[in-house]
Amino acid sequence: MSSASSLPVESLNVSLGDRSYPIHVGAGILSSREHLLPYLAGRQVMIVTNEVIAPHYLAALKATLADADLDIREVVLPDGEATKTLASVERIWDALLAAGFNRRCTLIALGGGVIGDMTGYAAASYQRGVAFVQIPTTLLAQVDSSVGGKTGVNHPRGKNMIGAFRQPRAVIIDTDTLRTLPARELSAGLAEVIKYGLIWDSAFLEWLENNLPALRTLEVSAIRHAIRRSCEIKAEVVAEDETEQGVRALLNLGHTFGHAIEAHQGYGNWLHGEAVGAGMMMAAQLSFERGWLSEADVERVAAILKAADLPVTAPANMQTEDFLSRMRLDKKNLDDRLRLILLEALGKACVRDDTDAERLERLLVNFPRA
After folding, report:
1. Fewest CB atoms less than 10 Å from the CB: which of 72, 84, 294, 312?
2. What is the pLDDT of residues 286-325, one digit of tens each?
3. Catalytic hit among 81, 185, 242, 244
4. CA dihedral sign of residues 26, 171, 74, 40
5. How are the residues of the chain apportioned to helix, strand and coil, as percentages rounded to the nearest 5?
6. Is 184 a catalytic residue?
7. Which letter, b or e, does each residue of 19-49 get, where b requires 16 or more Cβ atoms within 10 Å of its Cβ?
């Protein structure tokens, strides 16, 4: 087996015309000036991170940027999904204004999905738009939230309801950062990896079924392949449908149910990937009830989620109306019609707005709680 340091940096591209950008994946790439400096818009750099990530990686990032004639500042925010609010974004704006940063500044998001989403939204709105770079440090952010330009914050009534589309200049994925990731966070990231197999690539799904033990122990070649293939799929989808008018909605398999769980439980009590795991199980069951998946297919979905240590049941304290009231606020809904991502087959998803209300309620009533 090759060591992490002997493996070359792998790069792929998100093709969006003049807003295209690279995704670089490699061990130790956080210390690579050549993969970072070209994407800075000017001399002014604001690093946004949190109290958990900063002790691990902030000094290393600043060392990489040192001696490059840059004005480097930092904002260190509290950790957690509960901090993903306009108040936190305002702290970023305050820091930018206090430093006198102009339209040629660059924001660098150093952290997980919460930091990436808030930094992107701050970049989208500060002086009507400035540059930013994603350096995701969690698996979930590396394979999903750092790619595609969705930015924003949560509202007490719904997740990610306030935001903007703003593409980064680059996504720099240092796989070494996963070494400090708690096991629960790693499992949450695996939910999004599994999602790509379920919606897009049945061969990748089968590979995941065979390699989950290696992924959970961060085996080098396995984790790199999982990250790269996930990013390839997301880049392909985003290039086709940047602002989620069509096929990009497929990336939300399990999310309508999952966002309802997150909002109801209180942001951070269930991790995003945990809620999505349960949501994907609900979507698979509903797909079975519509006659698209077999019982064996549903059992495969349950088995891979359990192997990733993800929940396959809903919270015990959520009633049917708790789900429905949250799901009615989902961003995918159009003209008061609930749009759900379902599975026509394993590896093939679809967007449907014709789910019978009685069938949906029956699913929610009967779905196991724990």
Report:
1. 294
2. 999 999 999 999 999 999 999 999 999 999 999 999 999 9
3. 244
4. positive
5. 50, 20, 30
6. no
7. eebbbbbbbebbeeeebbeebbbeebbbbbb
In the structure encoding, which two tokens stand for residue 279, read together? 């949501």
Any catalytic annotation for residue 274? no
255 is a catalytic site residue: yes
Angle of helix 320-327 versus helix 255-265 axis, rounded to 10: 110
Catalytic residue among 34, 128, 317, 358: 128
Are residues 280 and 367 in contact, defined by beta-carbon separation less than 8 angstroms? no
Asked if 306 is an active-site residue, the reply is no
* Residue among 248, 264, 326, 331 flagged as catalytic: 248
Annotated catalytic residue, options 159, 234, 326, 331: 234
User: Hey, is 108 helix, strand or coil?
Assistant: strand
> Catalytic residue among 35, 255, 300, 331, which?
255
What is the Cα–Cα distance from 277 to 254, expressed in whole angstroms?
A: 7
**Token pair recorded at residue 258:** 């999952």
Token output for 198: 């379920």
Structure tokens at 34: 């050549």
Distance CA 201, CA 212 (A): 16
Condensed to tens digits (0 to 9), the pLDDT of residues 218-236 reads: 999 999 999 999 999 999 9
Report the C-alpha gap between 152 and 116 in whole angstroms: 9
DSSP secondary structure string for all residues of 137-169: -SHHIIIIITSS-EEEEEETTEEEEEEEE---S
Residue 92, judged by CB atoms within 10 A of its CB (0-12, 13-18, 19+), counts as buried
Active site residue 56: no
Q: Kindly report the pTM of this predicted structure.
A: 0.95
From 35, 169, 195, 272, active-site residue:
272
Is a pLDDT exceeding 90 seen at residue 1? no
206 annotated active-site: no
CA atoms within 13 A on the CB side of 46: 30
How far apart CA 103 and CA 62 sit, in angstroms, is 21
In this prediction, residue 4 carries a pLDDT of 58
Among candidates 236, 208, 238, which has minimal Cα distance to 223? 208
Q: Could you say which of 50, 159, 166, 192 is catalytic?
A: 192
Instruction: Give the amino acid at 329.
Output: L
